[in-house]
Give the backbone structure.
Amino acid sequence: MTLRVLLVEDDRELCRTLKDAMTAEGYEMFTAASLSESFALLTGLGSRPTSGGAPVDLVLLDLGLPDGDGEQLLAALRQKHTVPLIVISARESDGQKVRLLDAGADDYLVKPFSIRELLARMRVGLRHRGTSVAPAVTRYAVGELAIDLGTRDVMLAGKPVHLTPTEFNLLARLVRSAGQVVTHRQLLMDVWGAEFTEHTHYLRLYMAQLRGKLEENPADPQLLMNEPGVGYRIVESQG
Amino acid sequence: MTWLPGIDASADFWPARLRQAWLVVREASMSGTVAPMRDDAAHPSRRPARWPWAWACAVWAVAWLLMLGLDRHIGLAQAAVTLVLASALAAIWLPLVASLATTTLAVFAFDWFVVPPRHSFSVELSEDVLLLAEILLLSWVVTALLARGRVLATRARRSASHADQMRRLGDALREAEDPLRRGQALCQALDDLLGEAPRLLLLRDATTLPADDRASTTLGAPSADDLVGMWHCVRLCQQFGPGTGHEPELPALYLPLRGTEGAAYGAAMIAANPRDMTTPDVLVQAQALCDQMGQLLHRARTQRQAESAHAHAQGQTVRNALLAAISHDYRTPLAAIMGAASSLRDQGDKLTSGQRERLAGSIVAETRQLSRLTDNTLQLVRLDAPGVKLHLDWESPDELAGAAIDRARKHDPDRRIKVWAEPGLPLVRCDAVLFSQMLENLIDNALKYSDSPAPVELSVRRHGEHVVFAVRDSGPGVEPAWREKIFEVFQRGDWRSGSSNSAAQRGAGVGLAVCRAIALAHGGDLKLRPRSHGGSSFECWLREEEAPRVDARDSTLDGASS
């Protein structure tokens, strides 16, 4: 069964390019150039069993639309479905990126971007959609690092790594969203608690400690990536 | 009426001289020694003697004692000289009219007591009649001369005092920056002159309407009626009130603060004593003081206009230069994209798959360049805007370096980029997005200006109270003359044509300018240092700040590094 993708984009040229590229990759594409059109499309398509009841399997959403802001669609979708949603936008204010991610967007891409990057992000989004139905990921492996969230074991090159409880919680939170950016706010909220959402310096220190233990060169990380002004991301699992 | 133009200079013209003589007489009879001018009050040392009548009476008493006491021992001539002398001495203290009257009275008394036959107004000898007439005339002449001298001296003194007052007001106005304090200086000067504190209305602009409260200032708490009067005075730019010839029945004097071109920059209202106003020169002096203020306000306005015109012109120049620089920067990648894309469209079939791939790769790379250029330009405009706000947060220097290197590698996977961070660096307070943009620009710049095998290095270290991010390349370096100019976006034109440095000729464009703007916005600095073995080191110096403490919730937090 081909995967359905809804592309909401008002620039006709970009819309056609993306549609062609996605179709070539085997996706079934639906395009909308406005908010109202996308709402109509979503209603008309009906629900699909593969996507947990949502009419499509993935949404690519542009923010600046002729009849409103894409954030409205995000809010409406998130009330019913957990369908993966990637924001594509020319606006590059980091405050907005963070707000969208916190509001439930799975990822964002700033224009201009390459098709390869978009396809990669879409794959990550779809994989996570899958994990939300299946039992949660408990094992993570990349390079010489192996993490078992169930037993709380962290092994580097076959040797156990000792982590403090907070370090482990932080790492576990990133692993659960491997490949995706988790915002500072989200991390602080999930690991430390709601009253710590402004204490970014906690994150800095614990991330530095994690890197010190897990990375070969902490200043040149290969595993725990920083998205300046937005959040952190652990690279995707290979195991 | 202004200051009389030199009595002696116009002496040839008889009627003019008569008129002046009359003015002198009038003035001497009015002011004389009785009422000291208010502006004389500022110079107590020059105040006329007290008890003038007492002194005059004493002189006459002594003279009469001499004449009557030595009656038998002196002749008529000596007695006559004594009389003239007494008259002259008394005239020093007495006003003109009193002096003339006492002298006339004394001559009659002289005839009664001294000239034979005594105790009668009849005169025995005809030469004595002549003597009496001569005494009278001589005394009058001496009295008149003395009175005139006194008036001239008073005028000279007053004139000096007025000039001094003008100078002092000028100094006070120059020293004070804000119009309110300048107004107080004018109030003080008018108070000194007239003995009455004025009310002032000061305008920023001669054309301001009464409704605009922000552009006008009042001093001395004028009532609504006073304000109406003052605005009327401003609009007509004319004096009103006693002594001015316009509506003299008004209880107060209204003076406009005249600038040039017949426009008033405010008005002064003085609840004036009518007697003061009839004193010559006082009104003239008051108006001169007001005009001094008016001209100052006029100059201030002219200066404001010139400054704003200059700023506008300068802003225009800067904008034009920026637009020219940016357009130039856009043209190069656009040309490459155009070339590659049109070649793919028109010759696609004839090209090998390798050639096609190269062309497509070039389009992607140049588009990325355009995108970077757009980001930089936007950032430069944002940072240039007044009141720019940074999203400051505590950031880890090695994370910033790592993120920048990660991005640079994605764009340029073939190049060697090394990163090194001193262990145990403190957190820095910065805007992560801006700071990463700066580091990416610097790395981009280093990659552009050095050749492929040589690595580009990013290092972060502590230097005294600073954290220093350094991006080093092994390129040809930058000529000494260009080491500062390279950061100025508008220097591009000169630098391309005037420099033989091939690295500089390719142009850093907006990139380095935005880097420095970002460093400065963080309270830091961006410097270019030549490396000893060739190449450049671009260094961003950021002052270390004390980071907030972290509660050690984890018992093993401190032992984490062990």
